Amino acid sequence: MPLAQQRSFAAFPVRPAAVLVLGIAASLATGSALASAADAHIAPPQDTPYPGTIAIHVDATDTSQGIFAVHETIPVRPGELTLFYPEWIPGAHSPSGPIDMLAGLKITAGGKPLKWKRYKYDVYAFRVDVPKGVSSLDVRFQYLSGRGKFSFIQMTDKMLSLEWDNVSLYPAGHYSRDITFAPSVTFPHGWRFGTALEKASRTGDTVAFKPTTFNTLVDSPIYAGIYMKRVDLAPGAKTPVHLDVFADAPKDLEITPEQLQVHRNLVTQAYRLFGSHHYDHYDFLFSLSDHLSGNGLEHHQSSEDGMGPRYFTDWANNAPNRDLLAHEFTHSWNGKFRRPADLWTPNFNVPMGDSLLWVYEGQTQYWGFVLTARSGMWTPRQFREALAMTAANYDRNRPGFQWRTLEDTTNDPTAAHRAMLPYRSWQMSEEYYSGGQMMWLAVDAKIRALTHDRKSLDTFARDFFGVDNGSFVTRTYTFDDVVNALNGVVKYDWAGFLHRYVDELDPPFSKGLEATGWKLVYTDQESPYEKQYDSQPEPPRHIYNFTYSIGLTLTKDGGINDVRWNGPAFKAGIGSGGTLVAVDGKAYKAEVLKRAISAAKDGKAPIELTIKYQGEYRTVPVDYHGGLQYPHLVRIKGTPDYLDQIIAAKK
Q1: How many whole angstroms separate alpha carbon 529 and alpha carbon 521?
Q2: CB neighbour list of residue 262: distance below 8 Å, 6 or more residues apart
Q3: What does the pLDDT look like over 376-425, one tens digit per residue?
Q4: Which of the residue ranges 21-30, 269-278, 347-356 would you say has the lowest mean pLDDT?
């Protein structure tokens, strides 16, 4: 799952439902260890088949109230049974299963209610005693979609996203691949759906899918809606790839021939990069909505992708985030087929390890940018402008690398749960995404230099991710496997190279960029890409970026989203969370602040900012005279232009 294009704002609400209530979140840091000690009688998972098939039915028709009604029929044997609600969710990299959205749990046998009890030290585990003579349990509950402005909304009156880990309980003691489910869903009348699951039958609005293992079920979400268009992205290919688009209104489904072609190019360029695929069909589940929450979550044979409704209809002004589809598609190779060894777990309640997320997400972020450019979804200029914004974060806006390493940020999915951060630039967040991207850019440049342009990171991608064409069996990897694969491309001290970026403070991101033949500069003019980025609707966009000048990021209404640690505003005593209401005595608007910063350039008078915080007003003089600062890339004369080579479409 990608973070939004990283800027200096305080939080990235990609999936707010993943942020649990504080009482649960506080316990999770040590909850798994406590559970294993205090609840040791919970059977550890074994690689043995669970007897029988679990039938699961989801009634998804209550769109007005946002309620998924779940009914499971679970084959059982007499004795104590533990049922798990999935906790460690693939792609979220954290114990973030939304257990707080489960309600109304009732368990019966032969129509008679059975008492259940939650484990004392594990809120995701439920114990029930199965009486003699009982061969199956009926389990019913509701999963509740978010309803408020800042909650994770999975059901509207026009569309829904159904994630099976949200709506299922499963028996402990077995690998998830050894538990078979027979899923079915009742959809609102007339709605169409998209999924990687194979349909078995349909009766009216109820669709039954072919039985599948639980790990595959969780990896196969469903999108459904009133307004849908299915687009073939691999016409004539033996392996279908479809873009399943769901929109709030029919007009948002309009796709021009040029837009269709660049999306088809994405599939073509991915195949030319990796030389393989690991699915028998693939579906981009793509929502375009002002109401269903945006999303970006990888799966083996599909991906969940969510953007605003004008993705196609205002194409010229929507370059930011156009890399989302490429990022999630890349994950079919990097993350789903090939996966860090400590991220593979036998079921969804065994803790995951995130130490190699700088490969899993970092290299995926890298290829997401590159494939977006190679496909033509970005122009070369848009690619460079997007990369300049990323590079600027690690040039001026991540002082936290003075005390944290890139690898340490792989702990953030568990430590922070993507919660709001008061000082993002100092605390940092999941930097393994874009920091990892900058590192892999440096690796690509180094390979090209060492081999005199005969090889590149493309070679590594094909050798490492492109193996076993057609195989669905996950292949895990370790740090040593990555190093050995790089040495297979070209001999070098790759272990030392990677450690310098991953395990040491102040990684040399700028040197890696300059090795591509480009360097970062700042001017007083925003790039066209950054202007589009700022104009994106909240959340999380519409953030006015004064990070590289005065050291603030602000919302449209003057909310202080983040303050650059030790930047000019910070040194003047301004903190995050307040509201900028006036600039030099004039009511705040972004343009007013821009003019004030420009007017103060090379002068002596400070910029007077009036801040409202917790009902109090104060005016703060900020002694800054450097003018507006926005990032751009420029060529380094006399050096190879690796950057243009990297984004050139492969023939």
Answers
A1: 16
A2: 375, 376, 377
A3: 999 999 999 999 999 999 998 899 999 999 999 999 999 998 888 999 99
A4: 21-30
In single-letter form, the type of residue at position 370 comes to: V
Which residues make Cβ contacts (< 8 Å) with residue 559, sequence separation at least 6?
Answer: 578, 579, 580
Task: Please enumerate, as own/partner, the contacts of 45-48 that have beta carbons within 8 Å and a separation of 24 or more.
Answer: 45/172, 45/173, 45/174, 45/175, 45/176, 45/346, 45/347, 45/350, 46/173, 46/174, 46/175, 47/174, 47/175, 47/178, 47/346, 48/174, 48/175, 48/178
CA angle 129, 130, 133 (to 5 degrees): 150
> Are 290 and 484 spatial neighbours (Cβ–Cβ below 8 Å)?
no
For 426, phi then psi, to 5°, come to: -95, -45
Residues in CB range of 30: below 8 A, 6 or more apart: none
CB 639 within 8 A of CB 519: no
Q: How far apart are CA 63 and CA 187, in angstroms?
A: 10
Verdict on whether the full-model pTM lies above 0.70: yes
Kindly compute the dihedral angle of the four CA atoms of residues 488, 489, 491, 492, in this order, to the nearest 10 degrees: -120
Which tokens go with 216?
């595959």
Q: Are 298 and 335 in contact (CB under 8 A)?
A: yes
Q: What is the pLDDT of residues 328-355, one digit of tens each?
A: 999 999 999 999 999 999 999 999 999 9
The three-state (H, E, C) secondary structure of 444-484, written as one string: HHHHHHHCCCCCCHHHHHHHHHCCCCCCCCCEEECHHHHHH
For residue 549, the Cα-to-chain-centroid distance in whole angstroms is 29
Domains of the chain, first to last: 549-628 (2.30.42.10)
Closest CA to 357 of 29, 93, 94: 93
Confidence class for position 216, pLDDT limits 50, 70, 90: very high
Peptide bond into 606 cis (omega under 30): no
- Assess contact for 123 and 95: CB atoms under 8 A: no
Query: Cβ contacts of residue 431 below 8 Å, gap of 6+?
Result: 6, 398, 401, 406, 409
Angstrom distance (rounded) from CA 478 to CA 542? 39
The length of the chain is: 651
The answer to whether the beta carbons of residues 304 and 221 sit under 8 Å apart is: yes
Write out the two tokens for 399: 């002082």
* Continuous segment of H or E residues that includes residue 218: helix 214-218
Of 321, 384, 328, nearest in space to 360 by CA: 328
As a whole number of angstroms, the distance between CA 562 and CA 551 comes to 8
Confidence at 543, pLDDT banded by 50, 70, 90:
confident
Contact 285, 302 (CB under 8 A): yes
For the stretch 561-597, pLDDT in tens is: 999 999 999 999 999 999 999 999 999 999 999 999 9
CA 251 – CA 598 distance, rounded (Å): 42
Smallest CA-to-CA distance from 232 within 244, 249, 246, 224 is with 244
Scanning the structure block, which residue is given the tokens 């499963």?
A: 170
Question: β-pairing, 79-84 with 170-171?
Answer: antiparallel
Q: Are 444 and 252 in contact (CB under 8 A)?
A: no
Q: Reduced to 3 states, what is the DSSP secondary structure of residue 109?
A: strand
**109-122 mean pLDDT:** 95
Tokens linked to 568: 């000019």
* pLDDT of the residue at 458: 98
CB atoms within 10 A of CB 162: 23
Q: What is the mean pLDDT of residues 216-244?
A: 97
Identify the pLDDT of residue 25: 36
pLDDT band at 535 (very low <50, low <70, confident <90, very high): confident
